[in-house]
Specification:
With about 475 residues, the protein is mainly beta. The longest helix is centred in the first third of the chain and has 6 residues, at about 30-35. The radius of gyration is 25 Å and the shape is elongated.
């Protein structure tokens, strides 16, 4: 709880149909939002296809509510034009190869390889020249780095800041369709998400369909006490759902499919939590992502995450990936099935920034391509009461059910890590490699497996009361 102040939003309800304006870049939807009183209210968007030339900005205490899946927000026909002259901070004119399809009021993204993209709004259009509403605030966009404007923009956004957040925003019962172009993967790693909740508190995105995105699906960042719940995110070129630099927020009961869609098969995680504290990720289904199904990590420290009752299956990398600096994360009661790499991978990775004091408990890890659970460095992590079976499917007999690589002070307790004869694919039930030592391996059931129960290499590792063969130094 971050304070006792309670704000009651206005009960004003406006029908967006009363504000329709075909000449407006938002077809009048932004006019309806702006017509609400200062203390907010609700805008109802009726069924239909609303092709926008500029995204909607939702302020504090406003609910933007569709009428269900048949209320579709999308963008107009794809527009992209290369710059003819390098653009720099302070410029208010862009020289472009063509202005076909670009109108005053349009929102565009300005891209160049290796440069942070920037949003621009067009004030006026001349042949080969775009007049911008405001000068470029920063950056340089060289033509030799294929500088280009494209009509990529969030269809719905908030514009808060950590020191001045918006609050009480609700985005619900909408379909948001990015109208991606088949085969065009340009800018997919930096293109904005279709829903971008930035600098918000006590806000919700729920019961939306987010699909065909040129970049990510839903991103919530630099806020607190927000929820992303009961959405369906499909066919996005970037990550499905991202929670970034957030506190006390939740991602619950969403379905995410085909993240990294039509990419080079190396990018696109289903649900990703970065640089956040006290995040809860529960009861989601993530499948067919090109990258990891679930991904948790931080540049500095990510603490007290709770991931439970999720299903992560048939993803192109790990079912769940620990990516640096996870502390006090609990990963409980998840099912990680048929992923191309590990069921759970990367636990401990990062050297001095490795994962510490995390708990992996009561998860089910079946038929993954490599190890069921892979620890790689780190210390003081606990792996207990998991069911690990039939893994190493990509190379039968190569990977073990639970693998400890260069890992110290781990506790591997009361797991079942075994195969079902006659198709033994796991090398060992539990295996130490490299500089692993000082681990505690107790009470695990590790038979049958292809080569044996437990193989350990650490002179100070303790192995007690397990079922299955044991081989050590």
């Amino acid at each position: 709880m971050r304070g006792l102040e309670v704000f009651v939003a206005s009960d004003t309800v406006l029908d967006a149909a009363d504000f329709v304006n075909p000449d407006s870049p938002t077809l009048g939807l932004q006019d309806a939002i702006d017509a609400l009183p200062e203390d907010g209210g609700t805008v109802l968007v009726p069924e239909g296809i609303w092709a926008l030339r500029r995204g909607l900005t939702v302020p504090s205490h406003v609910t933007l509510r569709g009428s269900g899946p048949k209320t579709v927000l999308t963008r107009t026909a794809h527009v992209a034009s290369r710059l003819l002259q390098t653009a720099r901070a302070g410029d208010q004119l862009l020289q472009v190869a063509s202005t076909e399809g670009i109108c005053p009021g349009d929102e565009l993204s300005l891209f160049a390889y290796g440069v942070e993209p920037v949003r621009v709004v067009v004030e006026a259009v001349e042949p080969t020249t775009l007049h911008l509403r405001e000068p470029l605030a920063a950056g340089e966009y060289p033509i030799h780095l294929t500088a280009q404007v494209v009509n990529y923009f969030p269809l719905v956004r908030t514009e808060g800041r950590p020191d001045q957040p918006v609050s009480g925003v609700v985005i619900e019962d909408l379909t948001l369709d990015g109208a991606l172009i088949a085969g065009n993967t340009a800018w997919r790693t930096v293109a904005p998400p279709l829903v971008h909740v930035q600098g918000a508190a006590d806000s919700i995105v729920r019961r939306c369909v987010v699909q065909n995105a040129f970049g990510g699906g839903i991103q919530v960042d630099h806020g607190h006490d927000n929820r992303i719940e009961d959405n369906r995110v499909e066919r996005v070129r970037g990550h499905g759902i991202v929670l970034l630099a957030s506190a006390d927020s939740a991602v619950c009961a969403n379905t995410v499919r085909w993240s990294g869609f039509e990419s080079e098969k190396t990018w696109g995680n289903g649900i990703m939590v970065l640089d956040s504290a006290d995040a809860r990720v529960e009861k989601n289904v993530v499948e067919l992502s090109c990258g990891d199904g679930l991904h948790s990590g931080a540049a500095e420290a990510q603490r007290d995450g709770f991931w439970a009752y999720n299903v992560s299956r048939a993803n192109g990398k790990d079912g769940f990936y620990f990516c640096w600096n996870n502390w006090h994360t609990v990963l409980a009661d998840n099912t990680l099935l048929g992923n191309a790499r590990c069921g759970i991978g990367g636990l401990g990775a990062g050297g001095q920034r490795g994962d510490r004091l995390n708990i992996v408990v009561r998860n089910t890890l079946l038929a993954n391509g490599s190890a069921g659970i892979a620890l790689d460095g780190g210390s003081l992590n606990v792996v207990r009461d998991n069911t690990v079976s039939g893994n190493s499917r990509a190379a039968p007999g190569r990977s073990s059910g639970i693998l400890l690589q260069n890992t110290v002070h781990a506790r591997v307790l009361f797991n079942r890590s075994s195969d079902e004869p006659p198709d033994n694919t796991q090398r060992f039930g539990i295996q130490e490699l490299g500089a692993s030592d000082l681990n505690l391996i107790v009470g695990n059931w590790c038979e049958p497996n292809e080569e044996g129960g437990i193989l350990y290499v650490g002179w100070r590792t303790r192995v007690w009361e397990n079922t299955g063969t044991v081989c050590g130094p």
